[in-house]
Amino acid sequence: MGTFSDQVIINEEIKGVKTYVMPTGVKDVVTISGSMLGGSIHCAGKNSKISSLVASMLDKGTEKKNKYEISDMLESVGAELNFSSTRYHTHFTGFCLKNNLETVVSLLAEQLTTPRFSTEELSTLQGRISGNLIRDKENTKKLAMIQFLRTLFPRNHPNYQATIDESVESVKKASVKDLFAFHKEHYGLGSIKIAAAGDVKAEALNGLLLEAMKDWKNKKTNIPKITEKAIKPKKGSQTIKVQDKTSADLYIGQSIGINREHKDYYPLMLGVYILGGNFSARLMQTVRDKQGLTYGIGSSISGVSFGADGYWSTWGTFSPDILKKGVGATKDQINLWFDKGVTEEELSAKKTTINGSYKVSMDSTSGLTSKILSNAEQGRDLLYLDEYPKLIDAISLSEVNTAIKNHVDPEKLYMVSAGTL
Is 376 in a helix, a strand, or coil? Predict the structure, then answer.
């Protein structure tokens, strides 16, 4: 067995809630990471920003407490509670001393079940979010990425991105009524998963949760079946003009037609990591260090979770006057990577790097709970977390180079650049 399968205690005493408790050597401190289904994908056909606005309003007051009372309550015991929303989930994280766990769990339940959603607080939040979005219209990297994904995926695909103007409009038109409706439909028992690590006992946490959640209603929220597929790769380019910028950002890549469960995912992930995954990868060593053409450059695979077919991309930032030369150098490296493949030496080095980073990421209780929760959300057995380094080590050179050939086509790369060009 292993670290996780031996030490994590799983409990489903509360129907619709699954807990994963991992006691560690950390004294007096408890970290909690949890989630429930209810993200932007559950706003399909409606305002896609509602889910994130609901999550952002959870710490702005409940039926019994205003936001200042909540803040004072947490500050008085040195605790934290935070909420966020993703494409698929609403997430919550907590950090507290062992003796204050009951206080934090009780407050967490109150915030999740009885949010106030005041009109005044929503208006303030909308103004702040809209302002941040409008500032993003000067962010060349953000603009290039949005347009890149709008080209690779159809409107109803999970990886499709709204324009900044569309996002601002969605945020501004949201109402308190919309927030209450989303909360009523999706917040409740059914898909809740909670990971806890530190100085915590499973029976103690589960007892507190059972008391705090005894009146919660069951919700039948599921991840919708993804019917839209990525647009097939095609060669093309777009330029987004942004005035008075000293650098230009570039996205270049294509859809790959597979998700994380495909047999080629990990070999392809390793191949892309060798191309541009870190400072010692090919693109950084050549386009940046040897040729001095970029401030930063890298490659990755994204958008492959929960059944969605994803994409691979290379991002780089260049001085506008050498963008054309930088694009040429980047494409040269992509072509060489595709034509000649990666080497055994590169593969061995990157396996060591990836497995080392994996182990380092679990040096803290927050790292542990994050890994456990993510694994649970994907529906995997705990053994996966123990076997992951072996899974990476077992991938062969031929598997990596075959995956690159199967899912990359240098003749059909799409490119989006943004800046003062």
Answer: helix
Edge-to-edge strands of the sheet including 89-97?
9-11, 17-23, 192-198, 29-37, 89-97, 80-85
Beta bridge partners of 415: 237, 252
Name the nearest CA neighbour of 37 among 377, 310, 374: 377
Cα 251 from chain centre = 19
Residue 157: phi and psi, rounded to 5, are -80, 145
Mean pLDDT for 323-335 is 97
> Angle at Cα 88 formed by Cα 36 and Cα 205, nearest 5°?
20
Average pLDDT over residues 378-392: 96
412: Cβ–Cβ under 8 A, 6 or more apart, which residues? 233, 234, 235, 254
Section 278-303 average pLDDT: 96
Find tokens 């009146």 and name the residue: 215
Which three-class secondary structure state does DSSP give residue 301? strand
Q: Which two tokens stand for residue 196?
A: 């806890």
Strands 192-198 and 17-23, sheet pairing: parallel
Instruction: Determine how β-strand 236-241 pairs with β-strand 296-302.
Output: unpaired
pLDDT in tens, 41-97: 999 778 999 999 999 999 999 999 999 999 999 999 999 999 999 999 999 999 999
d(CA 231, CA 125): 35
End-to-end CA distance of the chain: 56
390 three-class SS? helix
Contacts of 188 (CB under 8 A, 6+ apart): 16, 36, 216, 217, 218, 219
Please give the order of strands across the beta sheet that includes 236-241: 236-241, 414-419, 248-255, 311-318, 296-302
Helices (H), 136-201: 140-152, 164-173, 176-186
182, 54 Cβ separation under 8 angstroms: yes
What DSSP element (H or E) covers 173?
A: helix 164-173
Q: Identity (one letter) of the amino acid at 73?
A: M
**In terms of pTM, does the model score above 0.90?**
yes
Alpha helices in 78-218 (DSSP H): 101-113, 119-135, 140-152, 164-173, 176-186, 202-212
| pLDDT, tens only, 222-256 | 999 888 999 999 999 999 999 999 999 999 999 99
Give the separation between CA 339 and CA 20, rounded to whole angstroms.
45
Residue 319 near residue 407, CB atoms below 8 Å: no
In the structure encoding, which two tokens stand for residue 146, read together?
């949005």
